[in-house]
Write a structure and sequence with these properties.
This protein is of the alpha+beta class. The protein has 13 helices and 13 strands. It has two domains: about 1-45 and about 255-385, no CATH class; about 55-240, no CATH class. Strand 3 (about 95-105) and strand 4 form a beta hairpin. Helix 2 (about 15-50) crosses helix 11, helix 10 (about 255-295) runs antiparallel to helix 11 and helix 11 (about 300-340) runs antiparallel to helix 12 (about 345-375).
Length: about 400
Amino acid sequence: MITRLIFRFLWERPWQFALAVTLCALGLASAICIVWLQSLLETHARRQAQGIDIVVGAQGSALQNVLAAVYYLDVPNGNIRLAEVDALRANPLVAKAIPIALGDSVAGARIVGTTPEFVSFYGATVASGELPTAPMDAVIGAAVAARTGLKVGDSFAGAHGLGDVGVEHDSHPYRVSGLLNPTGRVIDQTVVTLLESVWLVHEGHAASAEKEATFALIQLKSPIAMATLPRVINQKPGLQAAVPAMESARLLISFDWVALIVKAFAGVLIVAAMASLLGALLQALARQEPELALLRAMGASRRQLSALMLGESLVLVAVSSVVAGALAAVGVWALRTFALPGLVIDLQQGFLFWLAGLLLATVMAIVATIPVLWRSASVDVAAQLSSR
């Protein structure tokens, strides 16, 4: 009987119920999304930099070098001599030193000149065709292939610069030698070729005949080397060592205030929802007092009336939580689909955040319902029945 009455009372005031559900769902979805996305983005940033202990580039901004070399989100500070990369490779503290040369793009994707070990370093495998074996051969990352429609045997011209508006190098077209399987890492968003291809395309623009690279991706043999090698590199003229883990953490910390504002806004929405719930229940109680008095006269206990009032608020929280979970899932899906195709979504983690939000909303709903419970328990049965 109590359950049937709960849904009948809610059905009698659909607009109040919808308003409270909307406010509560928006607050919960905002809180869940910001906490979940913050965790996903931190994991995503670490995954993109996995295996890269140090980025060596031209002197300038360390953060800019990391963004350009690891995430391909910025322009490099300049070039370094390939001889410096060879010297780093010979260092006993270094396990791998992979040179990369940037400067051109196609359809907004970076063209990365590098050595054959670059592809295996990122854990990528060939889906069709083969890896580049000659200058001007290129292998296409999975996301780039899906976006551009390039396939094995096609030709394309790179555009000078790292955007879509650069002058194309029509005299040096690339040939697609292979397509890569998706990895969820940044290599999916790139076009990989040999260093010699980049040198050939830019041979007329080079300031000197000495071979250059843009960055060196360094993997160390031991974590102990991290304490000394960056300092040694920074003492060399024109070189700068940047640690991706430190720079990424610094970048994420700089956005903490944004997360704090969104969390505060989500908290305001949840509190507003609870206030709306309290007001709706008090108004409903004022109209339902004669019915509650009749229920008391028919033998219903104060505990049953309290369960009726509390049940209304819990139904609202349950519906709001389902809507909030759907909104959060859609938001994360949209981020992965349109902004970060390589983002790995941890559904179990998202469920735990949703469950935590549900428990928090349930506690707040119970607290908000306490005044209503007290008032419903003190309904004057005789007065209400006599007024009828």
